[in-house]
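Appendix B. Chain record.
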Amino acid sequence: MRTPDRLACSLVAAACLLLPSPASADPVVGQIDDFEDGTTQGWLINLLGMGSPPAEALPTNVTTGGPGGLDDNYLRLTSLGVAGAGGRLVALNLDPRWTGDYLSSGVAAITMDLINLGSTDLSLRLLFEHVEAGPPTDVAFTTDAVFLAAGGGWTSATFRVGLDDLTAALGSVEAALGDVSVVRLYHSPAAGFPGPPTAAQLGVDNIRATAVPEPASIAMLLAGVLGAGLAAGRRGS
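Structure tokens predicted for this chain:
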């Protein structure tokens, strides 16, 4: 794991200098972006003002082909792998539903359905920023990336967002999660921000705030506990 370099922090600061000051609410367990309203539901790119992104790099609501199949809308994110606007795979949201206090909201994870529509393997992370007046004072990203191989189908992913699941890039994890101003979804194989310019295309659907691990995660945890218990029993016999 590497700490984000000066360039990374400068990019975050520059972006936040361009942000309005959104009125924060708190996230609510169960809230979901399913894109069935035909919009991007507040997910956007290029607050750095690095020129006008090419049309093909803009987040797009696709009206069919989501994990539910025919007529299931999803969000398509595209990056071109070049320097400048649209070069990196990253999208952000300032909607008050995704900002505010994650520590007291009961939100322990953000789940979503993902599909890698490009030819590049992806390592996806979430980043949370706390902004007051000016550059961010606290920035934290998910320590473990969700790996998404090229060529696969839709898959469900879970990003744990507890205090122990994030790494501080600036300030503290607690302060970043306690008053979130901006949420980002981005690709970066290395533990840091920003990620590298990458030619990629990602489908996203059903972004949901959850309180507990998904059933598959619970099953894996129980299997680990049972396995440890059986091993201990064998040693004691």
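Further analysis of this model is presented in Appendix C.
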